[in-house]
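Re: that backbone. Tokens:
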């Protein structure tokens, strides 16, 4: 019986072995058949199918005993490898899915693939995941949106032009070296100047026009009669903005058209208003105007607050007895500072801007930065007519009869004037705005405040000035053009050495006829005292250097006297605050010294521009304290100007003779200071005392 059982089990095991052999044979033949059918390449999908197949086989043979599995160790190993292979290949499998289910374009597909591969790398799924999935449906991928990508940064040139007036971007560039000889006789269609004006210019020694004048005169005086009209109610004239280097003749560029056009007037009205930032400039422009307009019968007035308000009123307005709708003026041209102008607009009866033909804003960037009483908005409003609301009021009844004419744009205000013509159109003010500066602003906000009409920009700038760096026009990048014959230098030294450097420049570099700029009026007067001490210590001869301070601390009359002495070369050095850093034109200034370095490029441009004017040569020196050197250089660099400023090194040997003589003298003469508060008894303490 036992034997029977044993023989049965042997038969059983033999049968199983046969079955297994058959299974392996079948499997081998299947594999060979597949291999011969499929291309030889190692296709991942195929491999995967194989794996699936094998998996299925694996499932088929699940009824095998563990022993059999053990005996089939190589088979299990193969299975395991296949599983790992399947796991590795999963991203491709998923890609296949998304490809087959997405209707989106190829680009989108590649996006999907990338995302999935990335996900796979970041957080691999458990290996069994695909197999445990019960769903027969392939996994739908979520609709995928393109990932947000950063747009390419726009080029600097585009960014710099954002928000700017297109007229500024398309400014007319004028070559600074262009000149136009003045023809004394006959017509001159090139400039539009009358023979009389040209003769006057020649009398004044002006034989040719400078670049800015050659560009502006034809534009303002043009050949058409309309351009020369006193009123242009239906033809709006273009406003003009001019950026031209210091000393390039901007004043004449507006004075000549004013004189030329206003000379045709019959009745006196206030037709040209010139606004300037300081009294000194008002006086200077007045001199130029009077010289050019001599014999033309034009009346020129000034309002700066130098005289009493009542006195100015009596100089400006002819009739203050009753309100005249057309205003009343004793002057054709008014030159003024903005503060006093607002005083007259608000407080002087019959002071009216309705007849203005020209509104000139010189040193425009400086004036636009001044928000004093919102002066610009008030001036612009006064050039416009307000709509007539009620024809008959107590006020209009008392309106005096027309003894002074109304400007065309203001005619509707008067009840008795009821002009209905074929051309019964709205009439615009005839005021043309002209802006000038060596450092004209491109700030859209500031320019917008001017309410410019179809402006035309002129920029006087050398072609060699690397006109556009990064495609950004110089005027927009605040790279200002300097006078061609100007030589610029800087001396970097310690702060206490600055006075010595100044004495060195005066005595060893023959700096005379110089403007020396300090940061404040107080610094200017202290430096004058120091200089006088020094001169007393060093000059044995009878020719000491004469030094004076010039700042707003001085009364106007004293300032005028000092300026006249300086012009007469009786004063050799004028130590001044920035009061005269803009616009002042003194032809013999051969040197400018910035004793305190300027902190912004505009100030630098205007200070150094007091020399090398009208084509002359000149030297500018800047004393830069060591701690300021980095800032100063980067300021120049960003203005594209660093290469033009030459660094001059001054050794102790150069100043040895000056310092010993000076320090001895200072020790004797220095005024008593509380000893415990004074750091050292050095001459520098006189200039800028250093207290602990
Ligand atoms: N065509 C010319 N021929 C000779 N000299 C001239 C001519 N035009 C102007 N000038 C002289 O050039 C000097 C500088 O002129 P102006 O004061 O108008 O310069 P600017 O451009 O206004 O300078 P800034 O920007 O410093 O105010 C003046 O002395 C002026 O008389």
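Recovered sequence:
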């Amino acid at each position: 019986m036992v034997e029977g059982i044993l023989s049965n089990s042997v038969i059983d095991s033999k049968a199983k072995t046969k079955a297994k052999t058959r299974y392996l044979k079948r499997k081998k033949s299947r594999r060979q058949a597949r291999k011969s059918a499929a291309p030889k390449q190692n296709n991942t999908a195929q491999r995967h199918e194989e794996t699936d197949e094998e998996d299925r086989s694996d499932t088929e043979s699940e009824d095998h005993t563990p022993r059999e599995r053990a005996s089939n160790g190589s088979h299990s190993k193969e299975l395991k490898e296949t599983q790992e292979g399947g796991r590795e290949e999963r991203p491709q499998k998923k890609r296949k899915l998304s490809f087959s289910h997405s209707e989106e374009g190829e680009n989108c597909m590649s996006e999907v693939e990338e995302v999935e591969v990335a996900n796979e790398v970041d957080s691999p799924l458990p290996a069994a995941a695909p197999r445990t999935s019960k769903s027969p449906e392939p996994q739908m991928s979520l609709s995928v949106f393109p990932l947000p990508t950063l747009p390419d940064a726009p080029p600097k040139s585009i960014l710099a032009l954002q928000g700017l007036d297109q007229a500024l971007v398309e400014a007319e560039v004028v070559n600074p070296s262009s000149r136009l000889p003045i023809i004394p006789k006959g017509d001159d269609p090139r400039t539009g100047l009358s023979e009389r004006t040209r003769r006057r210019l020649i009398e004044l020694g002006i034989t040719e026009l400078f670049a800015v004048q050659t560009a502006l005169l034809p534009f303002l005086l043009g050949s058409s009669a309309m351009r020369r009209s006193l009123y242009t109610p239906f033809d709006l004239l273009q406003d003009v903005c001019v950026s031209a280097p210091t000393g390039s003749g901007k004043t004449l560029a507006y004075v000549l058209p004013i004189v030329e056009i206003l000379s045709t007037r019959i009745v006196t009205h206030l037709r040209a208003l010139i606004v300037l930032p300081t009294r000194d400039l008002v006086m200077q422009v007045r001199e130029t105007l009077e010289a050019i307009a001599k014999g033309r019968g034009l009346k020129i007035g000034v309002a700066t607050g130098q005289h009493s308000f009542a006195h100015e009123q009596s100089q400006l307005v002819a009739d203050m007895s009753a309100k005249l709708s057309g205003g009343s003026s004793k002057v054709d041209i008014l030159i003024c500072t903005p503060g006093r102008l607002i005083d007259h607009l608000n407080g002087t009866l019959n002071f009216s801007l309705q007849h203005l033909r020209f509104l000139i804003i010189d040193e425009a960037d400086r004036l636009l930065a001044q928000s004093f009483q919102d002066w610009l908005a008030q001036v612009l409003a006064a050039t416009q007519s307000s709509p007539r609301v009620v024809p008959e009021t107590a006020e209009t009844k008392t309106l005096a009869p027309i003894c002074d004419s109304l400007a065309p744009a203001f005619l509707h205000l008067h009840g008795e004037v009821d002009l209905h013509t074929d051309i019964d159109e709205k009439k615009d003010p005839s005021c043309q705005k002209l802006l000038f500066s060596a450092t004209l602003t491109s700030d859209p906000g500031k320019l917008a405040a001017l309410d410019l009409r179809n402006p035309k920009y002129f920029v006087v700038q050398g072609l060699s000035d690397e006109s556009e760096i990064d495609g950004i026009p110089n005027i927009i990048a605040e790279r200002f053009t300097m006078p061609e014959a100007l030589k610029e230098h800087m001396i970097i030294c310690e702060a206490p050495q600055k006075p010595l450097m100044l004495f060195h420049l005066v005595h060893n570099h023959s700096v005379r006829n110089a403007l020396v700029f300090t940061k404040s009026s107080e610094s200017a007067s202290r430096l004058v005292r120091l200089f006088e001490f020094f001169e007393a210590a060093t000059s044995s001869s009878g020719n000491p250097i004469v030094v004076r301070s010039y700042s707003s601390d001085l009364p106007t009359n004293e300032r005028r006297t000092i300026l006249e002495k300086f012009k007469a070369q009786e004063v050799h050095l004028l130590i001044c605050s920035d009061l005269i850093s803009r616009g002042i034109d003194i032809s013999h200034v051969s040197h400018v010294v910035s004793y305190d370095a300027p902190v912004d490029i505009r100030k630098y441009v205007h200070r150094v521009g007091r020399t090398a004017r009208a084509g002359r040569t000149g030297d500018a020196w800047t004393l830069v304290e060591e701690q300021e050197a980095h800032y100063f250089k980067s300021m120049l660099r960003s203005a594209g100007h660093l290469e033009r400023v030459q660094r001059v090194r001054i050794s102790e040997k150069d100043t040895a003779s000056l310092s010993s003589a000076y320090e001895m003298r200072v020790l004797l003469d220095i005024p008593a200071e509380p000893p415990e508060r004074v750091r050292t008894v050095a001459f520098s303490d006189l200039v800028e005392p250093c207290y602990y």
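Residues 206, 208-210, 213, 244, 246-252, 438, 583, 585, 587, 609, 613-614 surround adenosine-5'-triphosphate (CB under 6 Å). Confidence is low (pLDDT under 50) at residues 1-7, 39-133, 667-692.
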